[in-house]
Amino acid sequence: MSEEIKIEDFMKIDLRVAKIKEAIEVPEADKLIKLILDVGELGEKTVFAGIKSAYSLEELQDKFVVVVSNLKPRQMKFGLSEGMILAAGPGGSEVFMVSPDDGVQPGMRVK
């Protein structure tokens, strides 16, 4: 079990609904796909996600996901990653992105 945190710590995390506008192959990366996300009023964000074994580029197009939108951007070998999508599973082909129900809009806050 992970270390417990206080509600104040959790409230610092800004979870938002995002729509995948574009999924781009990163040929030199074994696990990563570059995602261009529409996060509503927060604009577009680029995120590199280790989901290449679990999802095709086509099935990611226009999919809604949950993103940690206030994560400090991280310079990676392949570019700047501006957040992190939420996913579960042990890895490889067993990665399952957290997807909100129908009716959501990009930028909606998850609470």
Mean pLDDT: 95
Largest sheet: 5 strands, antiparallel
Overall structural class, as computed from helix and strand content, comes to: mainly beta
* Percent range for β-strand residues: 35-45%
Widest β-sheet, arrangement of strands: 3-2-1-4-7
Taking the alpha carbons of the first and last residues, their distance comes to 22 Å
**Which word captures the global form?**
globular
Please report the total strand number as a whole number. 9
Helix content percent band: under 10%
Features:
two-stranded antiparallel ribbon, globular, 5-stranded antiparallel sheet, single chain, mainly beta, 111 residues, 2 helices
Please describe what this structure looks like.
The chain is mainly beta. It is built from two helices and nine strands. Strand 8 and strand 9 form a beta hairpin. The radius of gyration is 14 Å and the shape is globular. It starts with 6 loop residues before the first helix and ends in a 14-residue tail after the last strand.
